[in-house]
Design the sequence.
């Protein structure tokens, strides 16, 4: 069934095409605030997202996941690149869209933020929080607004009677539901979810994951799901992209990646997940050193300082994200085709 | 809504009222927990009450010289408390003995021994000097006074000078109460001006980074690097002596605020900068909310509670500013009455030696500065009711 | 055969916070023991009282909190001590804390001084534990310790400040500090929660390695079932300040008896779970500390809730097997290990 859905997504083509996307933040020093260097938070990234699928974006903190997401929503100005959205009624390049085009596109491309604590204005009632996009965009008010807010609350599993409460009166999970309701208010096509469950308790995380899966099925949403948690990525995604220091190092079908990764970093990530099973701990691939500072990305392959398979060539020559053989999968490693890396199952002892 | 079977979800049990409480209610609750702040608030409220109703609360006219005769100068009478123990040993309601004015013929020093053979009770709501409350309500009722049956302008009238009299025979206590009016309102008015300036410049500077921000930042830097007191002095000297009190008052207020807003504006800017990047502001931007909406709905209310706390903490500075200027003779002058003006009398060592009670106006200055600081501290802690 | 006396035996511990909004029963009737040379894991969701329990053992509960009742028997160098009966400022307690029982905190930045070098802080700790030590010897020992926790070129790193180190390195310095007194019991409070997977893997390996090498007992606190499965020998599942279930790691993962443990394990999207299917979520959320449900603390979320029973009284602790106990009425009929004691009547100034 999942395969049929994936096939369906393939037929319907790409909804997002990102080309050469970069975001470099200047590092400023001194009283005169002159630029002394650049944080290459996202560096020359290209990928496609298919209509109706979930693309999981995974990587450790600082790898640039949030920045990618914010660029897609144009909450940040890209340094370079194109972000083409093929929406139902229009085509937009979010990297350069202005005024009315941007306004229209933002109705269809919506963000769910990581921290339900800070993404809801503590001074507003739920009615105003969820209603804000409706008031601003559709000029809804009075009865019509209330009715719409209530139906959204019901949709995400909140009690509509509670619409006059302030965010602090809700638990973390409920606040995240409020965030989802707000994102859904304008009938979006694309949902950009930035670690929507990372701030939640384990027992509540499942509720939100279920909600997102259900909404996606019902509303036919395309979702980009960002997280550092590989178990969540495995559960939520159709395809997976792995980020390291501002680069995509691997991109491909979820099952194939988890069965047999093509990039050494992906393998190391898998081997690091603590399994809730005392009988089958994973074989650890312990990486050397820590994640380098994003302001000083190593030359050549950004991963070479920690890679267990690195060769001389890796230090100078940067590998590009490219299709490996005829697999339909992409990896940015010089030896992606030769290395025999272990998937999750093989890593289990 | 809780059903008997199945898990009882907690939300139903939660007390509706606390969960629908707004930010201001939560702030009030958390402010009330701050004991000193509550005491400070009581003092501040009392102060402004006195400022409003000074004519009524004060027993005597602050400006007019206490009526004198060749036999009575009434100058520099030392402070006196009402009595309750009668010379016959019994306890009575508050009363006073009349003072006899005696002049030592050699030293020319005047003393005021009590004539204990007579006593007059203190009464509430007595008739005294006539006044017009708020400029139009005519009355001659004062909160309290000595009931001796004489008219208010009779030189033999028996009076109680709690804080003594000054060289011009005026009642210091009444003058301090009347001084509350200018001293406290200059704080409020000055802060109101700072508030507007700080919000306008701070929000603009914080929200629109770029050249505008840079320009405002430089202006703030210049203004904050100027030492305040000398500049105040220079500016105040340029106020013409001939101006009426009211105009001098506004001029002083403007001078004090002009140099004080940059600190506040900087705070506002910092807060706006951090608020601008919070997820809820970003999310409003992605909702297509126009800039004005983001400013007025998300940013300014977000910093209001902090700003009010900072402003409360800024009031003492303004009060102190006025007091210092007037004390140095650069601010208000008689016939205006403010604590600073009153303290001008205490400038000479001689007066301090012979009439130390002329320094009493220092006490309300300290009292209110402390009170405003306590209230400000309490407000600052209460400003974030969501951080439990 | 009389069982060996455990290193730490906590019995019916209650630590309350007396706030202006009411009393928070952060730890409420917690009992467990840490046997010699074992790793005991405490797992539970945020706010269930894990950190407060750890701090209670160390006697570092900040006001308005206080250990109000219970016992904590520690079998240390100074004989069998009931830590709960000691004044936290007592000399005996001070000698125990840090040296015999030490702790690794979740947030390394808050546990280390930003104005002293790594070496300064470690040397100071070492010299405090061993008064005969000279400064030079302490420095050598310090370099040895840093090497032991896997810090590359400790000779130079010893003179670095904390903010110059990466998250993983900081955590290691904290580990080095915690083991510097050769403690009998190491308490680790979510030591890997703030760091990334690849670094977490290394810190976990380090802790396991240290345990094996030094045979030191460990109390490991986390909210991550995976970390528990990997590291712990024995597991305590906490919910709202008390033990929901307790057993060996195999008991807990293979044969969970408490509905909370079961639900917690089922809600994880683990390897066996079919992607994109509905997960077994637990309804509702952890109640706020001022409004506990009556009866069983889990009763308002429990899928096996029985009205009239579960919300009437706190269930006693039932025996499941030799090594496993659980606090749930579903086990009625099993041997009762400990009756549920009612909370004591206490006030802020007791
Ligand atoms: N506004 C900003 N200014 C400067 N640097 C930033 C900014 N936002 C993010 N960064 C940097 O970009 C890098 C990537 O950040 P982010 O996208 O948040 O990573 P992730 O979400 O994967 O943890 C980090 O090193 C971060 O410090
Ligand atoms: N200093 C404190 N004052 C009041 N309540 C506290 C304090 N510290 C912890 N608590 C409360 O104690 C409970 C347990 O907290 P904690 O032990 O930190 O949980 P966790 O299991 O996440 O470590 C929580 O409800 C928390 O609100
Ligand atoms: S290119 Fe080299 S260093 Fe980079 S991942 Fe591949 S083998 Fe490792
Ligand atoms: Mg992020
Ligand atoms: Mg904790």
Sequence:
């Amino acid at each position: 069934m999942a395969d049929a859905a994936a096939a369906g997504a393939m037929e319907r083509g790409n909804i997002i095409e990102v080309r050469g996307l970069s975001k470099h933040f200047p590092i400023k020093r001194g009283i005169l605030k002159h630029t002394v260097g650049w944080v290459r938070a996202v560096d020359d990234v290209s990928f496609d997202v298919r209509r109706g699928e979930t693309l999981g974006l995974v990587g450790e903190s600082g790898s640039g996941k949030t920045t990618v997401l914010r660029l897609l929503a144009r909450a940040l100005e890209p340094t370079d690149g194109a972000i083409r959205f093929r929406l139902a009624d229009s085509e937009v390049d979010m990297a350069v869209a202005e005024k009315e085009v941007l306004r229209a596109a933002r109705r269809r491309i919506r963000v769910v933020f990581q921290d339900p604590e800070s993404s809801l204005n503590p001074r507003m009632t739920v009615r105003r929080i969820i209603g804000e996009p409706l008031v601003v965009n559709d000029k809804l008010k009075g009865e019509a607004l209330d009715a719409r807010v209530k139906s959204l609350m019901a949709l995400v599993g909140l009690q509509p009677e509670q619409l006059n409460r302030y965010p602090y009166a809700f638990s973390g999970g409920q606040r995240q539901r409020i965030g989802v309701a707000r994102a859904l208010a304008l009938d979006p096509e694309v949902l950009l979810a930035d670690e929507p469950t990372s701030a939640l308790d384990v027992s509540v995380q499942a509720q939100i994951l279920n909600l997102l899966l259900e909404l996606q099925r019902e509303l036919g949403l395309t979702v980009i799901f960002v997280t550092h948690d590989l178990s969540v990525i495995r559960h939520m995604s159709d395809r997976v992209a792995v980020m390291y220091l501002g680069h995509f190092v691997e991109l491909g079908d979820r099952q194939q990646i988890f069965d047999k990764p093509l990039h050494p970093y992906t393998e190391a990530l898998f081997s690091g997940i603590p399994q809730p099973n005392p009988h089958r701990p994973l074989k650890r691939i312990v990486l050397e050193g820590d994640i380098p500072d994003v302001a000083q990305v190593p030359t050549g392959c950004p991963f070479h300082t920690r890679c267990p398979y690195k060769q001389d060539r890796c230090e100078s020559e940067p590998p590009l994200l490219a299709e490996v053989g005829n697999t339909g999968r992409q990896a940015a490693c010089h030896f992606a085709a030769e290395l025999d890396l272990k998937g999750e199952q093989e890593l289990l002892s | 809504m809780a059903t008997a079977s199945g898990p009882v979800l907690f939300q139903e049990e939660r007390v509706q009222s606390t969960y629908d409480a707004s930010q201001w209610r939560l702030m009030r609750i958390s402010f009330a927990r701050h004991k000193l702040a509550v005491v400070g608030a009581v003092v501040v409220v009392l102060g402004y009450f006195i400022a409003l109703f000074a004519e009524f609360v004060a027993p005597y006219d602050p400006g007019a010289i206490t009526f004198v005769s060749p036999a009575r100068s009434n100058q520099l009478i030392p402070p006196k408390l009402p009595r309750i123990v009668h010379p016959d040993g019994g306890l009575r309601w508050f009363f006073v003995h009349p003072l006899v004015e005696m002049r030592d013929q050699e030293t020319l020093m005047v003393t005021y021994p009590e004539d204990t053979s007579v006593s007059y009770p203190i009464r509430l709501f007595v008739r005294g000097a006539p006044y017009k409350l708020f400029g139009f309500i005519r009355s001659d009722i004062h909160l309290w006074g000595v009931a001796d049956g004489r008219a208010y302008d009779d030189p033999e009238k028996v009076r109680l000078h709690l804080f003594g009299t000054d060289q011009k025979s005026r009642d210091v206590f009444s003058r301090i109460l009347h001084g509350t009016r200018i001293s406290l309102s200059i704080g409020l008015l000055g802060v109101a001006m700072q508030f507007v300036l700080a919000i306008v410049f701070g929000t603009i500077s914080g929200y629109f980074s770029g050249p505008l921000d840079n320009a405002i930042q430089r202006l703030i830097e210049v203004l904050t690097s100027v030492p305040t007191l000398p500049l105040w002095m220079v500016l105040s000297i340029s106020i013409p002596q001939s101006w009426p009190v009211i105009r001098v008052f506004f001029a002083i207020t403007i001078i004090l605020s002009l140099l004080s807003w940059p600190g506040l504006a900087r705070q506002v800017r910092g807060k706006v900068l951090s608020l601008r990047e919070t997820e809820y502001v970003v999310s409003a931007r992605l909702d297509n909310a126009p800039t004005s909406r983001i400013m007025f709905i998300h940013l300014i209310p977000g910093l209001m509670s902090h700003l009010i706390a900072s402003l409360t903490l800024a009031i003492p500075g303004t009060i102190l500013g006025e007091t210092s200027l007037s004390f140095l003779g650069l601010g208000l002058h008689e016939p205006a009455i403010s604590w600073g003006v009153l303290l001008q009398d205490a400038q000479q060592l001689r007066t301090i030696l012979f009439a130390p009670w002329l320094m009493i106006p220092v006490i309300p200055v300290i009292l209110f500065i402390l009170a405003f600081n306590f209230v400000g501290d309490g407000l600052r802690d209460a400003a974030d009711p969501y951080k439990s | 055969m009389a069982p060996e006396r455990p290193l730490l035996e906590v019995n019916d511990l209650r630590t309350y916070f007396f706030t202006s909004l009411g009393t928070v029963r952060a730890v409420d009737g917690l009992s467990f023991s840490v046997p010699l040379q074992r790793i005991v894991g405490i797992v539970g969701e945020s706010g269930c009282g894990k950190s407060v329990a750890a701090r209670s053992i160390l006697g570092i509960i900040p006001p308005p909190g206080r250990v109000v009742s219970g016992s904590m028997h520690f079998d240390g160098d100074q004989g069998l001590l009931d830590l709960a009966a000691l004044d936290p400022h007592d000399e005996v307690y001070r000698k125990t804390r840090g040296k015999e029982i030490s702790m690794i905190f979740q947030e390394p930045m808050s546990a280390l001084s930003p104005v002293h070098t790594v070496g300064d802080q470690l040397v100071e700790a070492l010299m405090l534990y061993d008064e005969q030590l000279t400064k030079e010897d302490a420095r050598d020992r310090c370099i040895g310790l840093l090497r032991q926790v896997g810090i590359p070129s400790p000779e130079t790193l010893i003179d670095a400040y904390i903010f110059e180190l990466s998250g993983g390195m900081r955590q290691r310095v904290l580990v080095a500090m915690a083991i510097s007194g050769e403690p009998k019991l190491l308490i680790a409070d979510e030591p890997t929660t703030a760091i990334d997977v690849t670094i977490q893997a290394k810190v976990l390996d380090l802790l396991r390695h240290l345990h094996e090498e030094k045979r030191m007992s460990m109390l490991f606190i986390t909210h991550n079932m995976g970390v528990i499965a990997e590291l712990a020998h024995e597991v305590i599942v906490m919910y709202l300040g008390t033990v929901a279930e307790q057993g060996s790691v195999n008991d807990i993962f293979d044969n969970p008896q408490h509905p909370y443990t079961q639900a917690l394990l089922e809600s994880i999207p683990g390897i066996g779970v079919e992607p994109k299917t509905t997960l077994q979520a637990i309804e509702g959320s952890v109640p706020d500390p001022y409004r506990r449900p009556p009866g069983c603390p889990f009763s308002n979320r429990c899928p096996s809730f029985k009205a009239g029973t579960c919300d009437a009284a706190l269930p006693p602790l039932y025996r499941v097997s030799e090594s496993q106990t659980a606090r749930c009425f579903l086990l009625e009929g099993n041997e009762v290990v400990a009756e549920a004691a009612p909370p004591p009547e206490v006030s802020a100034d007791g």
Notes: DSSP finds twelve helices and twelve strands in chain A. The pocket of iron/sulfur cluster (ligand 3) is lined by residues A 264, 301, 303-304, 307, 309-310, 314, 319, 333-335 (CB under 6 Å). The radius of gyration of chain A is 21 Å.
